[in-house]
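Q: Given only this backbone (211 positions), what sequence would you predict?
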């Protein structure tokens, strides 16, 4: 018997879209949130002067930044970094405006990570542009240095919770990465990829899945 996808494309288009409207918080809570976010960003800018934040970024408590002297780190306007966000960078990180990181996401940059606009990262996503070298069996891995290759994530990409993006990967604009996936190869724009290693299960526009 041929395995069936858990829902057909027709069924998927019938699913209700919920929560697309404006958030239903009262005016007081929205005002309090606004003040907290502005204060939080001001404090973060003072504490982490090597990181450049655009306007109206929302950096939640418990975020951790370890930024090297030669690093170049920029977040565009209105980015959201939920609590526990961790960034270690000795290279170039650029995040486009309006991108949102769930709690405890980690980005580690040796050379270059570029993330587009309006991306959405679930909680505990890990993005790294390097691995530890381990070719030499005579030397401890800890002492073999790192191998690094740039990571590029296009605009409007959604990465599910606990996914890992490994070094050298390009994820095309408008792609979706399933929860817990490990992305080890490039994904073309508009693809939906799941699993370990991440494999494309469909294209968002219904086109053929590239081999
Ligand atoms: C990938 C996802 C978006 C579903 O996309 P979809 O195109 O609707 O895919 P479907 O549900 O039709 O599943 C297609 C196939 O992939 C499998 N699949 C879906 N998500 C998967 C995942 N995360 N890991 C492994 N396999 C997965 C399905 O079981 C199905 O396999 P089958 O054809 O053998 O039955 C969803 O499963 C997902 O992972 N969402 C992330 C949720 C999340 O982490 N949110 C964080 C808040 S931002």
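A: Predicted residues:
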């Amino acid at each position: 018997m041929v395995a069936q996808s858990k829902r057909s494309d027709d069924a998927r288009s019938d699913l209700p879209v919920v929560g697309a409207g404006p958030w239903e918080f009262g005016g007081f809570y929205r005002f309090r949130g606004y003040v907290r976010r502005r204060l939080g960003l001001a404090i973060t800018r003072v504490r982490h002067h090597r990181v450049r934040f655009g306007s109206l970024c929302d950096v939640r408590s418990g975020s951790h930044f370890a930024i090297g002297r030669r690093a170049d780190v920029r977040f565009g306007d209105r980015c959201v970094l939920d609590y526990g966000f961790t960034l270690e960078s000795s290279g170039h990180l650029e995040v486009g405006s309006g991108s949102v990181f769930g709690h405890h996401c980690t980005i580690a940059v040796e050379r270059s990570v570029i993330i587009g606009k309006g991306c959405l990262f679930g909680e505990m996503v890990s993005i790294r542009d390097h691995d530890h070298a381990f070719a030499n069996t005579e030397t401890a891995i800890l002492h073999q240095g790192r191998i690094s290759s740039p990571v590029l994530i296009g605009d409007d990409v959604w990465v599910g919770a606990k996914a890992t993006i490994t070094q050298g990967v390009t994820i095309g604009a408008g792609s979706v990465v399933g929860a817990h996936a490990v992305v080890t190869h490039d994904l073309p724009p508009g693809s939906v990829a799941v699993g370990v290693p991440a494999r494309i299960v469909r294209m968002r526009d219904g086109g053929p899945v590239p081999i």
